[in-house]
Design goal:
Blueprint lengths: L7 H17 L1 E7 H5 L2 H13 L2 E7 L1 H9 L5 E4 L2 H9 L7 E12 L13 H10 L4 E3 L5 H13 L11 E3 L4 H11 L2 E5 H6 L7 E4 L6 E8 L10 H12 L1 H9 L1 E2 L2 E2 L2 E2 L5
Parallel strand pairs: 1-2, 1-3, 5-6, 5-7
Antiparallel strand pairs: 3-9, 4-7, 4-8, 4-9, 4-12, 10-11
Helix pairs in contact: 6-7, 10-11
Length: 273
Amino acid sequence: MPRPTLGPAVAAALLFAGSAMAQDQSIIIQSTTSTANSGLYDYLLPIFQDQTGIKVNVVAVGTGQAIRNAENCDGDVLLVHAKPSEEAFVAAGFGTERTDLMYNDFVIVGPAEDPADVDGMDDVQGALMEIAVNSALFASRGDDSGTHKKEMALWADSGVDPTAASGEWYRETGSGMGATLNAGIGMGAYVMTDRATWISFANKQDYAIKVQGDADMFNQYGVIPVNPEKCPSVNIAAARTFADWLLSGAGQEAIGAYKVADQQLFFPNAPDN
C-alpha cells in the first residue's frame, strides 16, 4: 500500500513543531573567555546534555560584554566573574538571582628574566608597584572583562594608574585571555591571568607564575538565569534546569573533577553543597 503524502500545510506545521521542540532543548550561555579557554565547557556540557537532553551553546566573551549581551536578551544564562557587576545585573531586573558557583584565583605570570624582580611575591599590590617603578612591560586585556575589572581594582589599591603609561610599558590588547597571554609572551610582558587559563595554556615558552597567593587575587564565579520578565524569549525552564544542575551535588562534583595536567582548575562552592 503506498505511503500517504502530507499536504503542504500539514508538513509545514509538523516542521514548525519539530523546530520548536528542538529549540526548547537548547539554551545560550553568555560566559567568559577564561572558562572557555580552560576547557571546562568541553568537559561539563556533554555530561549535562546526556543527563537532560538540553544542548548548551556557549558565547565566550569578556564579562562586561557577556553582561551587555544578556541585557540585550541574547542569552538564557549568565556565568561570569565580576560579582559587583553581576549583582547590579540582578538589581536592574535582568537576572532572576545570582548564586556563587565556583572559584579559583588570579596569578601574574612573567618571563624568566623577571625584569621587575617580583618572582615569589605574594603581595600583589607590591608586585604591581615594582612593575610600574621599573617600567616593566605589562599586557592587560583592557576589555572590561572580569579579569580586567579585577586587574584595575588591584592597580587602584596599589596607588598606581597604569593607563597613564598606556602604549608605553602598559599595553592594552582589547582581547580575550588566551590572546592576551600570547601577545604578552610575544612582547616579554607580565600578564595577570586566571589560574585555570594558565594551566590550560599551551604556549608558555619560558614563562612561569611569578606572583600568587594573595587573598586579593581570589576569583569567584556566579551563575544567573536571565529574567523572562525583561527578556520574554528566554527559555527559562531549560535555563533553570542548567543553573540548578550546576549548583546541585552532581554539577558541583563534575566541576571539581575537571583537571588539566592533574591540576584542579575550579573549586565548587555553591551554597548547600
